[in-house]
């Protein structure tokens, strides 16, 4: 089958799902870049931010709400964190299923690429 994140979202890959609701699923990044590195992933297979339609864009707000809540749960709300969405090849996107990275738990570098 298809997309790895679709498989995770469908529960076909045993993994630690930290949070889920009707729209999104949150799980640990397999190759964490920080002590907290979670992926906020829509259930719907949207290949990238570039394919997000205007009617779907409220989903991004919901993803931010979920990320903020997870940051609280993970104890990094006060210390700070970073939300990242990579889009397309030059944007550094490796998995072609829209997702938002929540990174924190250490001092992140200032560079953006
Ligand atoms: P991006 O470069 O924004 O597309 O990020 C893709 C992320 O997905 C990378 O940080 C990978 O480590 C992560 N990743 C790839 N496969 C898996 C998987 N099976 N489970 C969890 N995270 C994954
Ligand atoms: Zn998918």
Could you characterize the architecture of this molecule?
There is one protein chain. The chain has 113 residues and is an alpha+beta fold. It has two helices and five strands; from the N terminus they run H-E-E-E-H-E-E. The protein has helices spanning 4-9, 58-73; strands spanning 17-20, 24-28, 36-42, 81-84, 100-104. The protein has a five-stranded antiparallel beta sheet, covered by helices on one side. A hairpin with a 3-residue loop joins strand 1 (17-20) and strand 2. Bound molecules: adenosine monophosphate and zinc ion (ZN).
Q: Count up the helices.
A: 2
* Overall mean pLDDT: 96
Low-confidence stretches: none
Distance between the termini: 32 Å
For the biggest β-sheet, the strand order reads 1-2-3-5-4
According to DSSP, the number of beta strands is: 5
Structural class: alpha+beta
Largest sheet: 5 strands, antiparallel
Task: Report the C-alpha radius of gyration, rounded.
Answer: 14 Å
Beta fraction: 15-25%
The oligomeric state of the chains shown is: single chain
List cofactors, ions and other ligands.
Answer: adenosine monophosphate, zinc ion
- Percent helix, as a range, is 10-25%
What's the shape?
Answer: globular
SSE sequence, one letter per element: HEEEHEE
